[in-house]
Design brief:
With 168 residues, this protein is mainly alpha-helical. It has one domain. The protein contains seven helices and no strands. Helix 2 packs antiparallel against helix 3 and helix 2 crosses helix 5. The longest helix has 32 residues.
């Protein structure tokens, strides 16, 4: 995530339009994938290194948390600390949080499948991992389909205005 973020933010300094656009597209895509799908890599890596479930969960949330904190820090230039912290509750951050939960559930099942395939007596699907996938995916879909996703953003903005005022 860090390398793609650095390249993405430095690409605009290049004079060549094509090189700038290519670097921005490649590094931006890598950044997006590392933030949105990083848990699907990190969780199994931690699982097979012997991490406890709590450690696996913390590891899976590390990249999205760092990304959200970076975005919050960028806002601190113009907004108060309280407003920046409120920004962490935006619909995109909530969807990312829910998406990571779903990824952890699926990753848990795949890790268990691998162990079962190696002869360990372990059930592949657990109630917790199945619930994580169903709840995570269902809530992400609901968040962006109810009112075409605008409802969640309107609620977010209404909360901001109620707490911090309209800014006028």
């Amino acid at each position: 995530m860090l390398a793609s973020w650095i390249v993405y933010n430095l690409a605009w300094r290049l004079d060549g339009g094509f090189v700038h656009q290519a670097l921005a597209a490649i590094s931006g895509t890598a950044l997006f994938l590392s933030v949105t799908l990083g848990a699907f890599y990190v969780y199994p890596a931690a699982y097979f290194k012997g991490a406890t479930q709590a450690e696996r969960i913390l590891a899976a949330f590390a990249t999205p948390f760092l990304w959200a904190t970076k975005e919050c820090a960028r806002l601190y230039i113009s907004y108060s600390l309280a407003e920046c912290v409120y920004y962490l509750l935006n619909p995109l951050s909530i969807a990312l949080f829910l998406w990571v939960i779903a990824q952890m559930g699926l990753a848990e099942m795949l890790c268990r499948r691998r162990l079962a395939g190696a002869g360990e007596p372990i059930g592949v699907v657990s109630a917790g991992s199945l619930a994580a996938v169903i709840v995570g995916v269902s809530l992400v879909i609901a968040l962006f389909t109810v009112g075409n996703g605008e409802s969640a953003y309107v609620i977010f903005l209404a909360g901001y205005r109620n707490i911090f005022g309209s800014g006028l």
